[in-house]
TrEMBL record:
<dbReference type="InterPro" id="IPR042097">
    <property type="entry name" value="Aminopeptidase_N-like_N_sf"/>
</dbReference>
<feature type="binding site">
    <location>
        <begin position="583"/>
        <end position="585"/>
    </location>
    <ligand>
        <name>a peptide</name>
    </ligand>
</feature>
<dbReference type="GO" id="GO:0016285">
    <property type="term" value="F:alanyl aminopeptidase activity"/>
</dbReference>
<dbReference type="Pfam" id="PF01433">
    <property type="entry name" value="Peptidase_M1"/>
</dbReference>
<keyword id="KW-0482">Metalloprotease</keyword>
<dbReference type="GO" id="GO:0008237">
    <property type="term" value="F:metallopeptidase activity"/>
</dbReference>
<dbReference type="InterPro" id="IPR016024">
    <property type="entry name" value="ARM-type_fold"/>
</dbReference>
<protein>
    <recommendedName>
        <fullName>Aminopeptidase N</fullName>
        <ecNumber>3.4.11.2</ecNumber>
    </recommendedName>
</protein>
<comment type="similarity">
    <text>Belongs to the peptidase M1 family.</text>
</comment>
<keyword id="KW-0378">Hydrolase</keyword>
<feature type="binding site">
    <location>
        <position position="327"/>
    </location>
    <ligand>
        <name>Zn(2+)</name>
    </ligand>
</feature>
<dbReference type="InterPro" id="IPR049980">
    <property type="entry name" value="LTA4H_cat"/>
</dbReference>
<feature type="signal peptide">
    <location>
        <begin position="1"/>
        <end position="21"/>
    </location>
</feature>
<keyword id="KW-0732">Signal</keyword>
<dbReference type="InterPro" id="IPR001930">
    <property type="entry name" value="Peptidase_M1"/>
</dbReference>
<dbReference type="InterPro" id="IPR015211">
    <property type="entry name" value="Peptidase_M1_C"/>
</dbReference>
<keyword id="KW-0963">Cytoplasm</keyword>
């Protein structure tokens, strides 16, 4: 039940609307339904809104951040188009919002806040006077809004100022703005944000690096974007330029290390433009978040949000930046129409990421990253149910957050790799350039992609490509026979050394690791046998100091091995890791593994309870099942 459900009791319209909301969304808590032929492929099952009748085109936001109460309060003005002239109401999504009032041209209008679905929130139906083109909703957020994290000063790098950030993808924008929270609704936006005077606000919009720090900040996003790309952060932030169009926002403690780590961002931007068409968002900046940020990165337009856990000191984890940057083409310019089509965002982006990494850092690095991605995909395929290995996944009745896997990423990228290999790289690049131009600023379904392919590459290269094969990739589980398999010579060497050591043909002191990159370490560790003896673990650790590794990915791989083998000398480090990092991809596998034994679960529970006040709502939700209640 919505925390503020008394609001709809107070609504004058309680169940008395002449027109009932006919939401697409079904209760996400209901049992998932079997895939059927009647599947409505362009329907967004995760929004209650009615863009086919009345479509929001612009958002005007005025919000104040109250750090004491942990609420955002103010108003959202929505401008809309009537698609269906007969439509009498606008339906927007909300989640745990307290609605103060709804007005059109200063006059209060009737509204109905429907009962809450636990995953999707509450539809807010607003009755529209005939001539209305704008409505204003005055509201405030809940302190536990699923899309907002409020951090105390201790949870930041500087420890002196509080911090706030939002994370809207997939269905959380509705927890801080009442809007049509569907990726097929695109809007421009303007915002005024009021903060404590000493803090700076930034958004996924135009940010003026020279703005006076006066507690009032203005933003404009002139290109129409889907709601999941609206983002806000507030903190003790400073800016440093990295290139002409690129820069970084971070707390002062992290600013110089971040700018050094990510100094290749400008080159990435330039080479991506050259290969795939113009960058359409003017500036590209990075925002470094506190370590509780639940993802590696989030492609908020003009301002990607980035976890600090990738600042390794040697640029070894910058594929993340290439990835978020690439979303400026695949995702932000050409957007998935529903969450079922997420692979159009993530698969294209993963493919582009590999291409950027190859061009900037060479083929060896690309090959290594591709093999690691492929292995990670294989691990997921082993664990997933067949129906969740389908690119165009059926998400009806489920929260998209609960079905997160490598399928849309790595399987999607492999499909594109196969097409590239069949038609030739130059031809495929020309196709991609056209694709981004053709669908720019549109939200498209998997079917739109298939139809477009039908009119282009499938027509041009009928002897090389078949529609049947493409459909097999998109609608069938697993990988089709003959799918590309990435290979790395550098890793072949690692395999030989690992085997020689395991077969006791080589002493640990003879494993020549001096020149190993992070990727070689990850490959060495990830492919050790599941079971290792205490002596073997001890030998590796004392020779290579793995427990002390400050590279968060290497530490993750090592700690996972430690948990699987109950290697206790690493447990202090494991505890510290779990308490200090909130990036779900890094902590979830550790919690999952710990939960398999009673002792492990007790350890996990202790760490989780200590960390919980600093974890993001998404990280809490994803891991609470692994610890004791
Ligand atoms: N857009 C995603 C993050 C996301 C996906 C949030 C789905 C919510 C729902 C972002 O671009 C991403 O893919 N991040 C990855 C990066 C990695 C693949 C390089 C991450 O955070 O791990
Ligand atoms: Zn992504």
């Amino acid at each position: 039940m919505n925390k503020f459900s008394w609001i709809w009791l107070a609504s004058p319209l309680l169940f008395a609307c002449s027109e009932t909301a006919t939401p697409n969304a079904q209760s996400a808590s209901a049992k998932p339904q079997p895939v059927t032929e009647q599947f409505e492929a362009s329907t967004d099952y995760h929004s209650f809104s009615n863009p086919d009748q009345v479509r929001v085109t612009h958002l005007d936001l005025d919000l104040t951040a109250d750090f004491e109460r942990r609420v955002l309060h103010g108003q959202a003005t929505l401008s809309f188009e009537r698609i269906d002239e007969a439509a009498k109401s606008l339906i927007v999504d909300t989640r745990d919002l307290m609605i103060d009032n709804v007005t059109v041209d200063g006059t209060k209008v009737d509204y109905d806040l429907k009962p809450a679905d636990p995953e999707l929130g509450s539809a807010l139906q607003i009755m529209l006077p005939e001539s209305a083109t704008k409505v204003t909703i005055a509201y405030q957020t809940s302190p536990s809004a699923s899309g907002v994290q409020w951090l105390s000063p201790e949870q930041t790098a500087g420890k002196q100022y509080p911090f706030l950030f939002t994370q809207a993808q997939a269905v959380h924008a509705r927890s801080f703005i009442p809007l049509q929270d569907s990726p097929q609704v695109r809007m421009t936006y303007e915002a005024t944000i009021h903060t404590p005077q000493e803090l700076l606000a930034v958004m996924s919009a135009s940010n003026d690096p020279d703005t006076a720090r006066d507690g009032e900040y203005h933003f404009t996003m002139a290109q129409p974007i889907p709601s999941y790309l609206i983002a806000l952060a507030i903190g003790n932030l400073e800016f440093q330029a990295m290139g002409e169009r690129t820069g970084v926002y971070a707390e002062p403690e992290l600013l110089a290390p971040a700018a050094a780590e990510f100094e290749d961002t400008e080159s990435m931007l330039e080479l991506t433009e050259k290969a795939f068409g113009p960058y359409q968002w003017d500036r590209y900046d990075l925002l470094i978040l506190p370590p509780s940020f639940p993802f590696g990165g989030m492609e908020n337009p003009r301002l990607s949000f980035i976890t600090p856990t990738v600042i390794a000191g040697d640029k070894s984890l910058v594929a993340l930046i290439a990835h978020e940057l690439a979303h400026s083409w695949s995702g932000n310019a050409v957007t998935n129409a529903t969450w079922r089509d997420l692979w159009l965002n993530e698969g294209f982006t993963t493919y582009l990421t590999y291409r950027i990494m190859e061009q900037l850092y060479g083929e060896d690095r690309y090959n290594m990253e591709a093999v690691l991605g492929y292995q990670s995909l294989q691990t997921d395929i082993e664990a997933l149910k067949a129906k969740d290995e389908i690119l165009a996944i059926d998400l009806r009745g489920r929260n998209p957050d609960d079905v997160f896997s490598d399928i849309p990423y790595e399987k999607g990228a492999l499909l594109l790799r196969e097409i590239e290999q069949k038609v030739g790289r130059d031809n495929f690049d020309a196709f991609l350039m056209d694709y981004f131009e053709h669908f720019s600023f549109q939200s498209i379904t998997t079917q739109s992609f298939i139809d477009y392919l039908d009119q282009t590459l499938l027509k041009q290269y009928p002897e090389k490509l078949s529609k049947q094969r493409i459909k097999q990739w998109i609608f069938e589980p697993g990988l089709p026979k003959g799918a590309p398999v990435p290979q790395s010579d550098a890793f072949a060497k690692i395999n030989r050394m690992r085997s020689a050591w395991l077969d006791q043909e080589m002493a640990v002191t003879d494993i020549k690791t001096q020149a190993w990159t992070t990727h070689e370490w990850l490959y060495f560790l990830n492919n050790l046998p599941q079971e290792l003896s205490a002596d073997q673990l001890q030998a590796l650790d004392s020779q290579f100091n793995l427990t002390a590794s400050q590279n968060n990915e290497i530490a993750h791989s090592w700690l996972l091995i430690a948990v699987k083998n109950e290697y206790k000398p690493a447990y202090d480090r494991l505890y510290e890791y779990l308490v200090n990092i909130g990036r779900n991809k890094l902590v979830k596998p550790l919690y999952r593994e710990l939960s398999k034994t009673e002792e492990g679960k007790a350890f996990a529970t202790k760490a989780f309870n200590e960390a919980k006040s600093g974890y993001h709502p998404l990280t809490i939700k994803a891991n609470q099942g692994f610890v004791e209640k």
